[in-house]
Amino acid sequence: MSLEPRLNLADDALTPVVLKEEEPFNCVECGKPFGVRSMVERMTEQLAGKHGMFQDNKAAKLIQMCDDCRVNAVYHSENNPFAMGEKPKIRTTEDYISKRRDH
Questions:
Q1: d(CA 52, CA 59)
Q2: pLDDT for position 31
Q3: For the chain, what are the domain ranges?
Q4: Which of 70, 66, 40, 43 is closest to 58 using CA atoms?
Q5: For residue 47, how far is the Cα from the chain centroid?
Q6: How many Cβ atoms sit within 10 Å of the Cβ of residue 72?
Q7: Which residues contact residue 89 at a Cβ distance below 8 angstroms, ignoring those fewer than 6 apart?
Q8: What is d(CA 69, CA 80) in angstroms, rounded to the nearest whole number?
Q9: Which regions in the chain score pLDDT beneath 50?
Q10: CB-side neighbour CA atoms (13 Å) of 95
Q11: Is there a contact between 47 and 60 (Cβ–Cβ < 8 Å)?
Q12: With contact defined as beta carbons under 8 Å apart, do 30 and 69 qualify?
């Protein structure tokens, strides 16, 4: 075993070096690049139609959307997880006291 000095003090040490470069994937809704094409295509291939959350085409299309378009699509979908009914009435101490039987 031996030690070798690895500190590079040459001028070319400050220039960036591309180790791996891939084609970006563009959002299917707005066209904004948001990920690597190979990763998004692989996720779509493995999940679409095979995973419970991605059984239909609309849900599988969510994999191919950027963050903004995905949130917008889920918000406007039929099964909107953000939708809720009317707010429940706030109960106060007076509500509890008025229903007591001993007064």
A1: 10
A2: 94
A3: 22-75
A4: 70
A5: 15
A6: 14
A7: none
A8: 14
A9: none
A10: 4
A11: yes
A12: yes
Whose CA is closest to 26, among 64, 62, 56, 61? 64
Tokens 């493995």 sit on residue = 46
pLDDT digits (tens, 9 = 90+) for 34-51: 999 999 999 988 888 888
Read off φ and ψ for residue 80, nearest 5 degrees: -65, 115
H/E segment holding residue 26: strand 24-26
**Angle ∠(33,81,53) on CA atoms, nearest 5:** 65
The three-class DSSP label of residue 34 is strand
CA Rg, the chain, in Å?
27
Structure tokens at 24: 């970006």
Which two three-digit tokens encode residue 2? 């031996």
CB atoms within 10 A of CB 66: 19
For residue 51, what is the enclosing H or E element? none
